[in-house]
Design goal:
By secondary structure, the chain is an alpha/beta fold. It is built from 13 helices and 12 strands. Helix 1 (about 15-30) crosses helix 10 (about 260-270), helix 1 packs across helix 13 (about 315-350) and helix 7 packs parallel to helix 12.
Amino acid sequence: MTKVAILHGYSADNIGDGFLVQETCSMLREVFGPNVDITLFAHKPDSFAGFGVRLFSTAPNKLLLPRASTLRELARLRTYDLVVGVGGGYLRMGRPSAAAKCALVHLPQLIAAGRVGSRAVYLPQSIGPFRMGTRAPMRRLLSRVSQVMARDDRTISELSLPNVTRYSDIALLRNAAIKRTHITPTGPAVYTVRGFDGTVPKDAIALAELLRPFDGFVQSTTGRNNDTEAMGSLRPIRLLERSEIHGAAGGRRVVVAVRLHAALLAMGAGHYVIHLSYERKGFGAFGDLGLGDYVHNVFNFSPSIVAEQVDRLLKDPEARRRYDEAITEAAGEISATRGRLLEVMRSTAGVYPARQ
């Protein structure tokens, strides 16, 4: 039985982070068979209780030190056939607070993965920025991993390492085969936001006034990533259920989303999505889809332009046709990328897929 460790999990209460872990588990079971033995290291392990995996907590103890049980298991990573860094955007040290969090929670896991070396691979990541003298040591640690998959071009450029290669976000890989059909969306628009240091960016607030009336959606309800207050401050008509935004319930909608995986999961369900990005990852994902015109910097964008895009997608069949065609044209390359990712998992582990 193949034994796999997944590092850097966060919390399933954040739908995007939960999806990344769930999809990673799904791909591992596709490659190695349904009985693959998976251990997940996560900041809030209890939130993953239904995932069918062994769990270790990476949250620091009361002394702000890694837990002894977790360190012992990280020291045993050489006993695993494969070590996987879950996709995401957690390796960054641009500000002191981010650097402290990364050092406390993620560095022990990255160091342990580096010790495994040839049997460790990091799934599509946005890595950086690294400031305050952290770039050189982080590059050394990342260079020890067999392969690091980057989901945006800035990560490739800033790391400039031979083991860093470009892949699309896991949410795109999952939805590459979905066929887009031309269906008229129902109104009103859906708007989902998050706060930054307790506030919603001013342009995002101005956009709410232009879109009104609109429905809302809460993507994350965990810790400092709880979007409930930010969404409530914008006074949507109602908050949608998850099935309405990540599924087919309620028909196709036009969605403006700040969190990347709120955007990509809604797109995978067939909705027309405009993304207000707060990190490099959003521009990489929408660029891969050929939808660069539909991603904007949430801290500096024109609310009127985004409102016009929403109006066109609601009313103009030709705008929707071009949107659908862009995704269809990108699907072939994205699907091929998924195949390469699965092969990397298999070859990095050095074992062959279980016979079905």
